[in-house]
């Protein structure tokens, strides 16, 4: 299962790298050397890179919060389990069953 998600991740990274390279004037097929067009491509590429980094940051932050939430829920369940067994011990002592 992790192999599938890794291959998807690699494919997405390669896709975004190729898209980014299209906006760098030296790598694109566009042979026009207009200063205005180069500036526009540079600005567009910068905006796309910033947006992609922002999306990655939001994704990583969401993943971190999800893992934190999972840990909190696991700790709460463990505390409830311990409390359940503590109550059983108290019940044994009250009934004189040897605890």
UniProtKB/TrEMBL annotation:
Cite the entry's keywords alphabetically: Membrane, Transmembrane, Transmembrane helix
TM spans (from-to): 44-66
Please state what the protein is called.
WD repeat-containing protein 82-B-like isoform X1
Origin species: Hibiscus syriacus (Rose of Sharon)
